[in-house]
Amino acid sequence: MKISRIEHLGIAVQSIADALPYYTDVLGLEFYKEEVVEDQKVKTAFLKVGEVKIELLEPTSPDSTIQKFLDNGGRGIHHVAFKVEDGVANALAQCEEHGIRLIDKAPRCGADNLKIAFLHPKSTCGILTELCEE
Ligand code: ZN
Q1: Residue 134 Cα, ligand 1 centroid: separation in angstroms?
Q2: pTM given for the model
Q3: Spacing, Cα 98 to ligand 1 middle (Å)
Q4: Which helix (H) or strand (E) holds 116?
Q5: Which helix (H) or strand (E) holds 71?
Q6: 43 C-alpha to ligand 1 centroid (Å)
Q7: What confidence tens digit (pLDDT) does each residue in 9-44 have?
Q8: What is the Å distance from ligand 1's center to 99 Cα?
């Protein structure tokens, strides 16, 4: 697979409204989009850091995986997303060949018009890893 860069960092927060002023007013980053992803039970907010984005993730339901992450003391970085140039489906096939545990067997639609798939942290040195393409 061909990874060109980190596409975004996913950061879990209990409240985007509470977290956003730090990123915009203190760090001076540009907030450009908010989007609810119903099937993942999250509200997302995107900020630009040059070519890379920060994706703030707020749970929209108590059974959201983000809520579970927060409840387990996991405030902060939730996942790292890599931009794949030669297709997420292709990258998944290669990961599977290497014995990597896949959370998504096939690419699906994510926030901000991306095709995404997650790799299980048990196979990726503890980091929930997202592969994505535009
Ligand atoms: Zn993400």
Answers
A1: 13
A2: 0.93
A3: 23
A4: strand 115-119
A5: helix 65-71
A6: 11
A7: 999 999 999 999 999 999 999 999 999 999 899 999
A8: 23
